[in-house]
């Protein structure tokens, strides 16, 4: 049964894309117990700003077909295979008109779910990289998911958005997707030398652990942006980086989701 | 003639809100030549995530009236006066339905411009804090503005969005707002110890200075998030912080805009 995991947080710049790419990579490097082949992983870029598509080495403007065509025109999902062992459905700026076009579309809420159905049994994990908004794209991602993973920056601003984030998940669980579970919270860009980061991390652990696992924080490090510039997961760019172990552990935890 | 300046960049988490609040503060502390009174400054929160509203000490959920009511229902702008010497029109999550409601609204593109007209002569500067998207809210902010100020993070990801950002400004200048000028680019969250930041800053200076001034970079510093948590501009929270001088210089440059 494939797990479809939305990396969701309406706040901007909190590492959704970075974690989609890096956790996707680590998942694709794990082989399930008693199996020879590794987990098969598909990443889907749902952001009109197409950052994941760029980070994975593609040029959004040069693409003939993107997730837009699948969601709006019910075309086949355009899958690019084996980028660092991962498959990818790219995005481009075309997706920015999708928010408006979906307003009046039939079966709007289920469009992404339907687009995934033909291929979802080809994958063990499908990760959905959400845009920084509470708009329709994030919403249909949550409707299509089995789980939601929440990167949350260890800064004061993150708490301002937490309530809205959780009420959005609750809203989706109340009707269009009763089975949606929170896989966990990932404290991101954690700067241990900074008291605000430390206090925010403690608050995250105290207040959110009751809802879902709070994973180990991903440290703030310039290596992430450097790896992105080289179009590589951190584990390939700088294998000995301390964050690599943490990413691996989170990936292993994701393989144990029910 | 009041200057209406949109802090615009579709990328998330690049310091739009932080700079709206801090530059607004410094502008309000300057008195024009040969005048006794300081410049009068109004901040407008255009983000449904209402970060500026929060940073300025208000609780979005408790507000009776926000920018939403002015733009959608043509109500009077709800102005909160004298927060650190600044006036503020707050936002709340109500604004998230505005993007959809504006799709079919009459005179959609001019709605914010019209909302500002009754009060714009009461202010020397009106700063518009845009959300992290290329949606209608950012668009009507650009249509209503005399100038656009672009915070741009000195990281690789920022270059991916630069072209789209500039083409959006060009599009607005071609028809709905022929007078829109780029006031400048503000390199933000600059970490001088990091080579990627340094290279990105150089690239920003080389490629964008031909279009508009590239201001001095705002250094990355935990003091900004700490000041925000205390609901204060940096200059009040930590007056001796090195970034305060830089913010002041940018504010002075803004007073010289034609
Ligand atoms: N742990 C980290 N330490 C330092 N920088 C990081 C870290 N994780 C991500 N970054 C960098 O921070 C920036 C924001 O990350 P990213 O784009 O993944 O966030 P996002 O939530 O997807 O943003 P958006 O809301 O725009 O989609 C990028 O430049 C990225 O390279
Ligand atoms: N120079 C800086 N150094 C370090 N942190 C900063 C700096 N400027 C802003 N920040 C912090 O970075 C985060 C993002 O800043 P901010 O909210 O102003 O960005 P934004 O572009 O308005 O984000 P959004 O796209 O979500 O509206 C905040 O937590 C803020 O306190
Ligand atoms: Mg992203
Ligand atoms: Mg903001």
UniProtKB/TrEMBL annotation, chains A, B:
Alphabetized Pfam families for the sequence: AAA_31 (PF13614)
Domain of life: Bacteria
Span of domain AAA: 2-182
Record InterPro entries: AAA_dom (IPR025669), DNA_Partitioning_ATPase (IPR050678), P-loop_NTPase (IPR027417)
CDD domains cross-referenced by the UniProt entry: ParAB_family
PANTHER family: P-LOOP CONTAINING NUCLEOSIDE TRIPHOSPHATE HYDROLASE, PARA FAMILY PROTEIN CT_582
Family: Belongs to the ParA family.
Protein known as: Cobyrinic acid a,c-diamide synthase
Species per Swiss-Prot/TrEMBL record: Hyella patelloides LEGE 07179
